[in-house]
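Example record for the data management plan.
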Amino acid sequence: IRDDVESRGLGDVYKRQADDCVGRMIDNTRNRMLRNSGRPFLVWGYVTVFTTLLVMGAVYYFQNPKWNILWMLLPVLGALLMWLTRDKHTEGKVSTFVDRVINNVWLVMGLTAWFVSMLALFMPMRLPILFIILLIMGMGTTVTGLIIRFTPTAVGGVAAIILAPFTLIAGDMWQPLLFIAGFVVMMIVPGHILNYKSNHPAR
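Corresponding structural encoding:
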């Protein structure tokens, strides 16, 4: 009986240590995101809004859907801005398990969005691409917010998921506007909140 009690006691200790370790990794990831001032959210949010307006304007001005090829600018501009605004001081930077989880989540979401976009652009099939992309990005944002326990990110992602089906029933003019609204609430707004928290740390 004594051995059983000691075993349970050790198990509780190990469980508490594991929980503390996971909590520290999450806190470290969240603090690092705060120090980075929400840069990825702002970069991809604003680049997506800019590209959507550019495509929308070109298609309606020239009355030619071939201008949808301008969507190809989005990953190029996003990657370029991420590189230009990258953190130059990487000495001593430690990547935690939570960091790798978040990176892998966005790798899968990003590649999926890219693959579906290529199908919509170059294959003879009609896909509700704005709905699909908004849904995928909303899921990725929600998962990220839940992992790092940052409420604005999780709420913004859920809002984008809820908004996504409305692009299916909206008119042609409203679809890109709803798409833009989704990226504003799930990336731009949380990105600016992260910026504010970075510049005004709690005392």
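Summary line stored alongside the record: The chain is about 80% helix and 0% strand.
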